[in-house]
């Protein structure tokens, strides 16, 4: 009986050592973007744990001021560590569901400028934008046109409204009401051309099939970065822009 008991604990000890060794190897050699306990680095490719790391910066609607400040400070530091110039944006309360807390404004640095700039956006949305810019937009522009994107022309982030501007109280609030969505209208490249969702989505516009190819590629890539991505393929309300947001639901269309 004593021998069986000793054998059991020896086995448990060996298993524990094996688990520790496996963890040490994983921690040392696995890509950091795949390990949830490693800090988010925006210079790394997308990984298995990227989405969860970005979600750590999300601010729940009922979060305390201390929780908002803690999550936002950590998010801002992640952006700054990646060479992105960013400043906190003031809170906004337009009543009801139109409340913005823990938002930031990207002011420059190692990221493609938003035009117009000075946008207020939730900090996790800013993180998603930087990831999309580096991992999706720039590689796609280089691959298709051999030219870098120099501006992302947009219709803004914040708007106190329900989805599609509906006045029906049964319709849910838009993510724009929390500055948690970005509407991308077109992309301007270093070679001077502008690829527009309205004009180039179907491949019949001034940039032909290459323009359509770029837009569809950055839409598909956005689906790996943002929670919700809506394009002209979704409905007529999005015929002139790509809607990118960080809502907890998942939809790519």
Structure classification: alpha+beta
Oligomer: single chain
Count of the domains: 2
Helix content: 25-40%
Q: What's the end-to-end separation, in Å?
A: 64 Å
Round the Cα radius of gyration to an integer and report it. Answer: 22 Å
Order of helices and strands: HHHEEEEEEHEEEHHEEE
Query: What would you call the shape?
Result: globular
The overall pLDDT, averaged over residues, is 90
Describe the protein:
Helix content is 37%, strand content 19%. With 253 residues, it is an alpha+beta fold. The chain folds into two domains: 1-30; 40-252, no CATH class. Helix 3 packs parallel to helix 4 (123-145) and helix 4 (123-145) packs antiparallel against helix 6 (208-222). The longest helix has 28 residues, at 2-29. It is globular and about 80 Å long. The mean pLDDT is 90.
Considering the chains and any ligands shown, give keywords for the structure.
single chain; 253 residues; alpha+beta; 7-stranded mixed beta sheet; 3-stranded antiparallel beta sheet; 12 strands; 37% helix; Extensin; Extensin-like_C
Describe the structure in brief:
The chain has helices spanning 2-29, 50-55, 65-81, 123-145, 197-200, 208-222; strands at 84-88, 92-93, 99-100, 103-109, 114-115, 121-122, 149-154, 181-189, 194-196, 228-230, 242-245, 251-252. The chain is an alpha+beta fold and 253 residues long.
């Amino acid at each position: 009986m004593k021998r069986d008991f000793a054998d059991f604990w020896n086995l448990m000890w060996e298993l524990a050592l094996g688990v520790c060794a496996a963890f040490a190897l994983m921690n040392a050699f696995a890509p950091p973007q795949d390990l949830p306990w490693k800090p988010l680095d925006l210079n790394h490719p997308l990984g298995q744990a990227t989405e969860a790391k970005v979600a750590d910066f999300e601010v729940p609607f009922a979060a305390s001021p201390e929780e908002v400040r803690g999550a936002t400070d950590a998010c801002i530091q992640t952006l700054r560590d990646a060479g992105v110039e960013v400043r906190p944006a003031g809170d906004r309360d337009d009543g009801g569901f139109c409340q913005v807390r823990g938002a930031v404004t990207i002011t420059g640095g190692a990221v493609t400028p938003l035009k117009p700039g000075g946008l207020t956006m939730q900090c996790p949305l800013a993180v998603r934008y930087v990831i999309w810019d580096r991992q999706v937009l720039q590689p796609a522009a280089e691959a298709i046109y051999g030219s870098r994107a120099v501006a992302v022309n947009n219709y803004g982030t914040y708007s106190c409204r329900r989805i599609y501007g509906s006045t029906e109280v049964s319709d849910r609030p838009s993510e724009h009401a929390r500055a948690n969505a970005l509407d991308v209208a077109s992309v301007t490249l270093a070679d001077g051309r502008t690829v527009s969702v309205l004009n180039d989505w179907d491949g019949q516009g001034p940039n032909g099939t290459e323009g359509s190819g770029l837009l569809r590629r950055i839409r598909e890539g956005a689906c790996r970065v943002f929670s919700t991505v809506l394009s002209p393929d979704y409905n007529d309300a999005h015929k002139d822009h790509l809607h990118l947001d960080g809502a907890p639901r998942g939809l790519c269309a």
